[in-house]
């Protein structure tokens, strides 16, 4: 039923689109209906279908160009404006180039503000603008003006408010092998409207000193060189978890249990770095190097992780306000599924659920009497990263899963030539980290505006005994394999020989073969139809005046017969030449010319419908004469002996 309904919807959209375009000339109506359907499918499609969208945009813009040409041709004929009959080819060629340019720019433009090369090109202009702004501010210090809000500073609190006010101004760049998040601060306590970092342990470290971090499993060191392009308020930005810095820093720590996930009674409590400030003033253009212990974990490891949360983790990271919304608790239970499933699977369900909410940076702030999370989840159902992350962290906490929000920056734009990530104000971001015993804090991305975090599955390779036909075990593992009798290929199981791993024959998909054949046939039929219209009917359009249409057909045949092709000839002069060459069709040629001249030049032009029947009758009798003359000329040309070179 679903396939039938979709097929009917597609047919109906195509029918209405064709009707509005070819019957009434309303091109935009036909295009918009199909565009809405395609955009909805593009947004919700499980697999990328951007190619269909690009193809549709090209065809739609070409259709608009063609419709504009037809409208202008009708207007030119109405006002007796002469134009070339071959204008269609030139017009559509230019339209195609314009279309490709527009679509290319549409895909490239959003990322220009985050492109490192683009920033280098604009650097002199930006510098001059900053100097001009500073000079203006110096001359008019007394003016009361609104301060510019920026997203380059992070403190110990994060409030859920209204619209974000960020720009594409570059903040810093990072030279490193890989990156996903540049952490600034983690939050543990939530009071219903605001997150807070309650780290009370502060320790100073000298430059290049080693920072004691917990040795979580499945981590790899990552070196990063950060160069500031704007002020960051002294916050040291880096991938988690920082274990060394070239700057002297002040670190804020929270207590956390050891990496092996021991019980609270037997474990030794360690501290975790949650916020870093530089102990020196960081100026624009300064660089520093940090080494982080970056997670490199698999999905399998996360699914098999235990749930033995130490008290140092469960106490701060399961905290919720006393009046926390029961609606959100119920929603979390419905979305996460059975408590018997792994923590990782339940977390991923909540993440996928929240990514279904619309991303919107221009939302209004919730009222004083409104719960911000209920406002996001149940009322407006749209928002930005602060709301996504807050909703996910609190929903997981209500399920007994330790989680926290983290603020910093998303990865930014990577320049492959220089190996540098360029991060702008717009990349300021908040995400979620979930605690897994022995593996530490693992990042998750609930925000719809960001790409999904992809991790390796970690699935084990099949054991030797799982190979069909192989023995369960060898008598002596040290025996040379060459002494084993495996037989020949003919002794292999059928599943290996019939489409198995030894089947290297390329078999293209049947669907692709059918699609290719249908597209080829459609191209051939379309080409034949266009040629037929050009040969038999002349120029096309929505509605053409019959005198002009029939006369243009006549002139088109004259050009194919190489008659009356001189420029500057009047209609009657062309008619005389054609009549002399085609005496059989003389009366029809003369009458068609008379009607055309009267329509174009007479004080009282022929009105539509007055001579349609006569024109059609004359053309119907003249067309076989023209075709016969054309064939005779073609045959005569083929019989002519070739001149020797």
Which sheet architecture does the biggest sheet show? 6 strands, antiparallel
Task: Give the assembly state of these chains.
Answer: single chain
| Count of distinct strands | 18
> Alpha-carbon distance between the termini?
71 Å
Uncertain stretches of 5 or more adjacent residues: 144-152, 258-269, 461-484, 495-509, 534-543, 641-645
Structural class by secondary-structure content: alpha+beta
Structural shape: elongated
Summarize model confidence as the mean pLDDT. Answer: 79
How much of the residues is beta strand, in percent? Answer: 15-25%
Radius of gyration: 37 Å
Q: What share of residues is helical?
A: 40-55%
Q: What's the number of helices?
A: 17
Please give the domain count: 3
Query: Which strand order do you get reading across the main beta sheet?
Result: 8-11-7-2-16-15
Describe the structure concisely for a colleague.
With 645 residues, the chain is α+β, with helices and mostly antiparallel strands. Helix content is 43%, strand content 16%.
